[in-house]
Amino acid sequence: MSTVTHRTQVAIIGAGPSGLLLGQLLARSGIDNVVLEQRSPDYVLGRIRAGVLEQTAVDLLAEAGVSRRMHAEGLPHDGVVLCFDGQLHRIDLHALTGKRVMVYGQTEVTRDLMDARGASGQTTVYEAADVAIHDWSLDGAPRVTWTAGGQSHELHADFIAGCDGFHGVCRASVPQDAITLNEKVYPFGWLGLLSDTPPVHEELIYVHHERGFALCSQRSRTRSRYYVQCSLQDKVEDWSDEAFWAELKRRLPASVAADLVTGPSLEKSIAPLRSFVAEPLRFGRLFLAGDAGHIVPPTGAKGLNLAASDVGYLWQGLVEHYRGASMAGLDAYSQRALARIWKAERFSWWMTSLMHRFPETGVTGPFGERMQQAELAYLFESKAAQTVLAENYVGLPM
Ligand code: FAS
Ligand code: PHB
User: What's the pTM?
Assistant: First the structure.
């Protein structure tokens, strides 16, 4: 069977937020790119994930020309609430940092990027099977091969952007002796539920409770997203909607539980929690961005935001290369991205360690629980401690 050959400047593997944002930024800078995605558009949109955007991500989406609906439908939040010992403690993000966060679901970000890409005329291949990358060394000639509809294809490119997530092919293709993998797996998961019910509170509530962590988040004034910490042995089919709502109410203060509007789940899923960083993020003409290069526990709302800042650094480096024939930005990509990634990893690990109940064999035990209680008590007494949390939650500078 003959192979159909294609050519572009940047081959992007993955049509999640990282791949689509990079593709859009490059297209608007006049840099031709092709996005290859193994799944269908509907499958990608069906994954319910992040909900909170930092200003850096909002700014990049504006740069990509896809911020109109976000500003029309998104919810700017000036504060966030932590609940401990049945008491609500509001952290005034805007008063402490001058910044706020934007509550706008990843599904909507992805939809906006998909729509923009469709209008841009750039090539996107969905349901690309057997994607493989080749010859990405600095003096090589990068190629991507795949099959679709029984036809084999080959794409020649100057660079490959691995935006294919934690389980993607790009990082897995890097020889083991060329990459360092740093990982910590947490002994629990998050059971998430999406419902067309009004949010229980105007801002997000992160709950520390002896039965386990809970989070009250939202997608709009009529759509809510809730999470409860669960065992890694749990299966989503073990949890009826009624069981979920009952457990969430047990972890909320009575006054908040009384306001909780329950309803049928639109989506319910269990996400494992891990901290993960691959180093470096650049291999010749291959670059890793987003979940392909790192994972954070979602407690700090950093996953999608880190993907955006990676893409921002990579876009700047590629523009510098194509406009000035300088590799300086690309040479600095990995170090610049990793500097921000590790600070977000620290914050996400800290928030996870502070807010979750660890099994007896884990971090907590009696002494660990007292450390959590002392840290939370100090947090609620100290403006300095609240400022540290606020600075990290709204996002450190790029
Ligand atoms: P993605 O994983 O989103 O996208 C990668 C894309 O590459 C996918 O569409 C995949 O199909 C495709 N792909 C993979 N292998 C391929 C191949 N071989 N060929 C072609 N395409 C391939 N972050 C938060 O801030 N808050 C949350 O609550 C939160 N919840 C999450 C829950 C889950 C279950 C997961 C997995 C992540 C969650 N995240 C959360 C993090 C999430 O938002 C990521 O940070 C974000 O999706 C990163 O986007 P991408 O880097 O584009 O990776
Ligand atoms: C969400 O709305 O899905 C969400 C919000 C904040 C987090 C994690 C998830 O820290």
Answer: 0.96
